Amino acid sequence: MELNASKYQQKLKKMGRRAIALSIILLILFCISLGVMWMIAKIQGAPPLSVPQTTILYNADKSLLEEMHHGQKRYWVPIENISPHVIQATISVEDQNFYNHHGFDPKRIAGAAVADLKAMAKVQGASTITQQYARNLFLEHDKTWIRKLREAWYTVRLETNYDKDRILEGYLNTIYYGHGVYGIEAASRYYFNKNASKLTRSEASILAGIPKGPSYYSPFNNLENAKERQEIILAAMQKEGFITQEEEKKAFAAKLSFHEIKEEEKQDIAPYFVDEVKKQVKEKLHLTNDRELHGLRIYTTLNPKLQKLAEKKVEKTIDPDSSIQTGFMAMDPKTGAVKALIGGKDYEESPFNRATQAVRQPGSTMKVPLYYAAIEHGLTPSTLFKSEPTVFTFGKGKKESKYKPSNYHDYYANDNITLSQAIALSDNIYAVKTMQYIGADQLVQTSREMGIKSNIKPVPSLALGTSPVRLSEMVNAYGMIENGGREIEPTFVTKVESYDGKVLYEAPKEHKQVLDEDAAYVTTHLMTGMFDERLNDYTTVTGNSINEKTTHIYGGKSGTTQTDSWMIGFSPSLVAGVWTGYDKDQTMDKVTERSYAKNIWVSFMEEAHKGKTVQAFSPSKGVVGVLVNPDNGKLATKDCPNTRLTYYVKGTEPTEYCDEHMEHTEEKKQEKKEKKEEDGFWQKVLPWA
């Protein structure tokens, strides 16, 4: 028997050694497996943490312009912008050992298994915060073994490539808090109308309880259930040492002020502008669809006050019963930043943007690029051309063509007029003669330099604006004239950030010189003439109808065709353009219809500058200002009844003095002499007089 017992003991020892050896082998294999998994996880790299986030658009003053939720409200905030009460409550109830494990909690798994065996049902979860985060990021919430294995793999990848704070940050930004709200920032705004960084301990413990059962524990659905869950969480926080018993009681008893939830109204703030923002962001970031915009923080150029002002002026000016449409754009001429944009009277009725998409004949507003090109090529404000009915001949031989333009209402000076007068009075004959002088191809090239990208054609009528262009292009061109010739383009976005704050795009701040600075300033000063009655010779200046409404210094130009009415102009700080007309090329027969563009423009500009100091346009270094007689462009004398300060590129200013009033001057001298002698006589006779 003793022999058998000895053999048995030896057998047991042998089996024990084998078991130990097997255990060691299994442990080695397990360690090797973990090592291999770690290496593979490192090789595969960090899994992306982004999920569809709410896209936020900001105005130029950083106020909220619009949010695009894509069906789910989500805002990503860094962990340092989350209340520590939220972090403590979440860890206490979801994963007490979060900072001590590597994605899986063996003790919790064992405890959950025992609890489930005792109850013969699934009664306790064992998922860590990392596992839940992996599920939220990458997986559906089904209960298959394949899903469990994939969850485990993503958990390893997360733990291998990210630190604990980054994982916790991601978890708090992705969990579901009910009512279509994802992430702690969206939940904080939804339930308490505050940022997540401002949450109190009481509020945080209420929110931390919702993810276990968003419908059951939502305080909006059942406050009693929410309070019961809050009590459990506060007790867990006390047990983990985050708070004292006194703080636990105080937090539970604290009165909660929930946000009054109202049915969301559809945002309708600058909808045409928002469309352009999305279009520009996709272009700058090379995106192909709106889905790729998810989670971006987009900083725009919109000035909400100017936008509301523009909308008010359009609504007040245009007859609501009229089917006339409008396009409006205001921008900073120094940077190209678009401050206000209107693409039509009603976005819901027609989202077609008439400011950036529609191409229409610009009429006489095209004379600004024309006269800039003329100044650059040798003409001056004093250059004389005769205004009279004229038939122009273009081309030679078989390509020869005749062109007979006319002035508005067939008004002509039938005499020589200056360039200063021609632009102020909008003389068409002078304009076509100017284009003959510089060449139609030169006007096309100059227009391109000013940012006009539409397909304008070098035809005889180009000087009068018969080639269709976009309003946005013309406003941009006028802005470049005002800023001294620096290149700009209509800019709707200043910066784009990813959900985690990475800068993806920033608008350039440098603008290269593309136009002649001095010629641009001379043109700017010429454009003030439309508001100056001193340039009135044979008809009224084109700004006459709105001149009395102006209190600031502006440069501008209007334009009219049978179907279009334009007004574009600027101050030193703002350029704005208005187009009005019918979509289907219907003629504007009423005088009031043709006046809409000017009236919208002047009322907008005046209110936009209300309370601001009147600013003059600053001359460039290469120009000189002299007093001239605007009727002939010669240097004015003290006897000229009409004078105007006019700017010229240095070296091109007039040198000849006006002699038209010499006869009147001699007569006046004789009258003064006779009066003096008469006064002297009576002074001797009546010394007291």
Could you walk me through the main structural features you see in this protein, from its secondary elements to its overall organization?
This protein is an alpha+beta fold. 41% of the residues lie in helices and 13% in strands. The chain has a 5-stranded mixed sheet with strand order 2-1-5-12-13, covered by helices on one side. A 5-stranded antiparallel sheet has the order 7-6-16-15-14, sandwiched between helices. Strand 15 and strand 16 form a beta hairpin. Helix 1 crosses helix 5, helix 2 (84-94) runs parallel beside helix 8 and helix 13 (367-376) crosses helix 16. The protein starts with a helix and ends with a helix.
Task: Provide key terms for this protein.
single chain; 689 residues; alpha+beta; five-stranded antiparallel sheet; 21 helices; disordered C terminus; Monofunctional biosynthetic peptidoglycan transglycosylase; transferase; carboxypeptidase; membrane
Major sheet characteristics: 5 strands, mixed
Portion in beta strands = 5-15%
Overall shape: elongated
- Derived structural class: alpha+beta
Head-to-tail CA distance between termini: 165 Å
* Low confidence ranges: 111-117, 119-124, 681-689
